[in-house]
Design a protein that fits this description.
By secondary structure, this protein is of the alpha/beta class. 26% of the residues lie in helices and 26% in strands. It has 4 helices and 7 strands, in the order E-H-E-H-E-E-H-E-E-E-H. The chain has a 7-stranded mixed sheet with strand order 1-7-6-2-5-4-3. Strand 3 and strand 4 form a beta hairpin. The longest helix is centred in the N-terminal third of the chain and has 12 residues. Bound molecules: adenosine-5'-triphosphate and magnesium ion.
C-alpha cells in the first residue's frame, strides 16, 4: 500500500488526527516518528495518549529515553535521540512485545532494533503552523489502520 499524506494547519488538528489514529491501534503496535526539531512528534504523541485514555500529561522524554503511561492501553513513549549511533539496546523487545503501544521519536537511531511490522510516521514542517504528515504502513494491520484514518 502507498503512504497516505495528511496536512494539518494547527497543533490541535495534529492532536486530533493522532487521537483518531489511536482508536484503531491494538496492544503491541509500534509507531515511529521522524521529523526535524519542533516538527510535532511529541505533540502527535500527546494526541495518541488522549485517544488511549492516558490522563497524565505527556512530556518530552528526552532525558529518560522511555516513559510509560497507564491508559486503556498503556503507552510507551520513547525519544531515542540521545542514543544516536550508540547502538545501545535498552531492552526494546520487552516494550515491542509488551501489552502497550510503543511510539518512538527519532526511531532511525535504533533502526536495527525496530520490528518489521510497524507504522512509520514522518512530520514535515511546512511553515509555523502547517505540517505534512506521511503515514507509511508496514504490514496488513497498519494498512487497515491507515485506510481507517484516511476515511
Ligand atoms: N500543525 C501543527 N502540528 C503540530 N505542532 C504544531 C503545529 N503548528 C504548530 N505547532 C507547534 O510546533 C511545536 C512542536 O513541538 P514538539 O515538541 O511536538 O516537536 P518535536 O518534533 O517533538 O520536537 P523534538 O525534536 O524537539 O522532540 C509545538 O510548539 C506546537 O505548538
Ligand atoms: Mg519531541
Amino acid at each position: 500500500m502507498e503512504s497516505i499524506v495528511i496536512t494539518t494547519k494547527t497543533e490541535l488538528e495534529t492532536r486530533k488526527l493522532a487521537e483518531k489514529l489511536a482508536l484503531s491501534l491494538r496492544p503491541g503496535d509500534v509507531l515511529t516518528l521522524e521529523g526535524d526539531l519542533g516538527a510535532g512528534k511529541t505533540t502527535f504523541t500527546k494526541g495518541l495518549g488522549a485517544g488511549l485514555g492516558v490522563r497524565r500529561t505527556i512530556n518530552s522524554p528526552t532525558f529518560t529515553i522511555v516513559k510509560e503511561y497507564q491508559g486503556e492501553i498503556p503507552l510507551y513513549h520513547m525519544d531515542v535521540y540521545r542514543l544516536e549511533d550508540s547502538e545501545e539496546d535498552i531492552g526494546f523487545d520487552e516494550y515491542f512485545n509488551g501489552d502497550g503501544i510503543t511510539v518512538i521519536e527519532w526511531a532511525h537511531f535504533i533502526a536495527d532494533y525496530l520490528p518489521e511490522k510497524r507504522l512509520d510516521i514522518e512530520i514535515r514542517l511546512i511553515d509555523e503552523q502547517e505540517r505534512e504528515i506521511t503515514f507509511s504502513p508496514k504490514g496488513h494491520h497498519f494498512e487497515a489502520v491507515c485506510k481507517e484514518l484516511a476515511r
